[in-house]
Structure formats: structure tokens, C-alpha cells
Amino acid sequence: MNNRFINWFRFASPQSFYPLAGKMIPWFWGLTAIFGVVGLWISFFVAPTDAVQGEGYRIIFIHVPASWMSMFIYLVMAAWAGLGLALNTRLSGMMAQALAPTGALMAFISLWTGAFWGKPMWGTWWVWDARLTSELILFFLYIGFIALQAAIDDARRADKAGAILALVGVVNVPIIYFSVKWWNTLHQGASVSVMKSPSMAQTMLWGMLIMALCFWMYSIAVALMRVRAIILERETHTEWVKELPEVKQ
Amino acid sequence: MSALLAIVRRDLLIAMRRKSEVLTALFFFIIVVSLFPLGIGPEPALLKKIAPGILWVAALLSTMLSLNRLFATDHADGTLEQLVLSPTPLGLLVAGKIMAHWLTSGLPLVLLAPVLGLQFDLEPSALGVLVGALLLGTPLLSLIGSIGAALTLGVRGGGVLLSLLVLPLYIPALIFGAGAVEAHISGLGASGHLSLLAALLALAAFFAPWATTAALRISLE
Amino acid sequence: MNWNSPAEFFAMGGYALYVWGSFIVCAAIMVMEPMLAKKRQRDILRTLRRERIAEELDRQ
After folding, report:
1. Residues 6 or more apart whose Cβ sits within 8 Å of residue C60
2. What pLDDT is recorded for position A1?
3. Is residue A178's pLDDT more than 70?
4. Which residues of A touch C14 (CB under 8 A)?
5. Which of A67, A148, B89, C51 lies at 20 to 30 Å from C26 by C-alpha?
6. Touch between chain B and chain C: 3 or more Cβ pairs under 8 Å
7. Stretch 104-163 of chain B: residues touching chain A, C-beta under 8 Å
């Protein structure tokens, strides 16, 4: 028990996490590719044409996974941030910082594909539908987090300030979602939803799940790549960085 | 408790000495609200419909304007560090500062809103709901805003950054606040909105001073 | 199989703009982002290498 505990903390130092992340990245890229190929195959060739939405519904195979990931990454980011505040570990803040741009891009993909789905289905590029609106606000929250961290020069302070913002945000996300939903039902907005399509077949669900796995693996891979760069940027003047083979060459 | 009141009194005194800052935010509120009819057109039915939203958005922006000086001046002259070092719990002092901020920037909005509401032809009962919603909502704005003000203390481009951080968090207040008046006008009754606003206020009153305190300590490290 | 010919596949039953507009932008982002991360890593490594060389020259 005790031993395992020590092992975990060993990887919590940037010095030992840096090579570990380097080893893990190709594996996650491999998984991304596998899930991506299978997921795309299902989305385009296995899943049948939707009776109501025609071929246009195939957008949900990236829209829904991107929306899921954008929310999930915010939670993970806040968890890392909270961990960093509580245990004062250096790596946590770096992980939160590495995840934020990926989360923001996922939110952006979700909004973009939502608009491209909405145009043929609703007839407009944008509808103030509860899901889309909450996604937009989530995107703003990511931008706020990134902007705050970019504005503070001292890395430790940036981590801690970002952590507080992420935690405040995580408390607010359900409140925002609920309030937007309330606002939407009051104003009787569009109730058509991507997910509520009447013919949600089993194969479509499978396609979406596998694409979600692909997005998940992608997010991990790209966040690990970014965290490696952040580790080097922050630890520039430490001995272990100077001893790295890629620096010495 | 006396420390809290002392902070409130001190901040109110300072605000009285620098009347122009308080008045600027207030006139900003008036001007923004008056700009909308000019931009949209003087049609009474339309203006009546969008009045709650306009008044609330203007209230959010005007609060944003005054948030900057919540901690900045005290930070600049070193008072803030003395407050952090004082034996009184910082959370209490922060609560006092938030209260003073509300008294100087939130309360005037609440008092002014019915007059502006008249410009939009709101009925007396709707004006009453508007005042009630603002009375519950503006302290909420001060509380949430204080977190942002503490986080951006002494940071490059703090003012713009502050609005980027805080405005998304203001959305629930905006929805329930403006929604209360709209629900009242449409005959649905505003009690649901107002009680949700009150619940948010209670939640924020509990958590926000605490988060602000943590953010201040980080900013002053 | 849903498609009888490649042309039919690319036409997406009349939804080509929307389907491909979504998938291509998504793919472009997912290619760009790792490239930017890679560039960030390369940039910092180059700086570190330069600093190391400068230090060695100082010592000499």
C-alpha cells in the first residue's frame, strides 16, 4: 500500500513525468488512429441513412463526441487545478494549462458542427437552443481561463489563479446549464435536438461511442505533447533539463 | 463584526470623497440604457418587451466598470497587505469590502432602475418586480465580481480580462433577473425566478468571499 | 453499403456542404493542434540547446 503511494508521487514530479509522457504519446496516437478509422467507417459506411434527416445527420458523429469532450475536459482540468491547490504539486497546474486549449478547441468544433447541422435541419446557422448556448458559454469559460493564465507572468501564480477560476467555473457550469435551459423553455425555443432523432439506431450509438473514444485518445495525446513543452519551458534552468539527451545533442 | 462595519464605513467614506467614480458608473448605466431606443427605434411595444433585458445588461456592464477599483486602489497604496496581515479573518474584511461595493455601485442602480423603466413604459407592478430582482441580483454581481477582481489584481490588461472572466459567470443572474420581469409582464408570476435568484445569492454569499480571499492571497504572494 | 459510387459518397445526399464542412474543419483542427504543440516543443528545445552552447562557450 505504502509502496504504491510512493510510486504515484514519483510520477507527479515533472522530471519523471517528462520521459513517461514521451513514451505514452505514440501509444495514444495509435489508439486515436485505430478508433478514428473504425469510427469513421461506421459513421460513413455502416450507419444507415436517417429517415428524417437524410445524410446530414452524419455530422453528429463528430458533433456529439466533441461536445462530450469539451465538458469532460473542463471537469478534468478543474480536477487537476483543485489537486494542484490542495497538494501544491507543480505538475497539476501544468496539466490544467495543457488541457485548456484542447478543451476550447473541442468546444469550438462542437459549435461549428452544431451550426453546420443546424443550417439544413433548422434552416438557420444558429439557434439559441439550450445546448448550443451552454456550449458557447463553456467556450467563453475556456477563453477566460486561457487569457488569465496568459496574462500572469509568474507561472506559480498563474497556476493558482487559474485553479481558482476553474473551480469557480466548475461550480457555475451546472448552474449556467440549468438557467439556460430554464430560459429556453420559457421562451419556447427550438426543441429539435441532434440526440432526440426518432431513429437513433444501435449502429449510430456505436459509431458515436467509438468516435468519442477516438476524440478522447486524441485529447490525451495532444495534451501530453503540450505538457511536455510546458514542462521544459517552466523548468528551463534545472539540472535535469540540461542533462536531457535531446538538449545535449 | 465591528471590523466588518469599520471596513464598510471606511470604503463608503472613500467613495464619498471620490464621488466622480461612483457617478461615472451611474451615468454609464443611464447612457447605455438610453442608447438602446436610439439604436432600435422608438416603437413602444418592442421597447417594453426588451426593457428588462436592456436594464439588466446595462446593470452588468456598469457593475463591471466599478469592479476594477474594488481592490486596486488598496493594492496600490499597500492597505491591502495590511488587511491580509491583520488578525481579523480576511474573509470578514473581504465581505465588508464587497458590501461597500454593493452600497456604492449596486444600490444606486436599484434606485435608478424604476426611473429608467418609465422611459420604457413599464407598468408600476413590473417596476416593482424589477426593483426586487435588482435588489437580489446586484449583490450577486458584486459577490461574483469580487472573485474576478481579486484574480486580476495587478495583472496586465486587468480591466478587459476582468470582463472576460466575470461576464460568463453573470449569465444566470442575467437570465433569472431579466426573466423575473418578463415572467411578471406575461402573467406567469415572478416568484419562481426571484426565489432562484435568492438561492443563487445565498450560495454566492457563502462561497464568494472565501474564493475571493484565496485569490487575494495568491495575488499578494 | 450506403453508396453506389464515389460521386454519391461525396454528394452526401445533397448535404455535402454541411457534412464535409463539418468533417474537414474538424480534421483541420485536429491536424493543426498537434503541429502547434510539436512546434512549441521544438522551439523550447532549440532555446535550451542554444543556452547550453552559450554556457559551454562561457566556460571556455
Report:
1. none
2. 42
3. yes
4. 54-55
5. A148
6. no
7. 147, 151-152, 155-158, 161
Residue among A113, A225, A248 whose CB faces C26 most closely: A113
Q: Are B93 and B4 in contact (CB under 8 A)?
A: yes
Distance CA B45, CA B55 (A): 16
- Residue A189: per-residue pLDDT: 47
Scored b (16 or more CB within 10 A) or e, C23-33 reads bebbeeebeeb
**Mean pLDDT value of segment A90-94:** 89
Which residues of chain A lie closer than 8 angstroms to B179, CB-CB?
182-183, 186
The alpha-carbon gap from C42 to the nearest alpha carbon of chain A, in Å, equals: 8
Report yes or no: A148 and B165 within 8 Å, Cβ to Cβ.
Answer: yes
Calpha distance B154→A146 (Å, rounded): 17
For chain C, the chains sharing at least 3 beta-carbon pairs closer than 8 angstroms are A
Mean predicted confidence (pLDDT) in B148-157:
87
The DSSP code sequence of B132-178 is HHHHHHHHHHHHHHHHHHHHTTT-TTHHHHHHHHHHHHTHHHHHHHH
Q: List the domain boundaries for chain B.
A: 2-220
| Torsion angle (degrees, nearest 10) of CA B186, B189, B195, B200 | 0
Q: Which residues of C touch A120 (CB under 8 A)?
A: 15, 18
- ipTM exceeding 0.85? yes
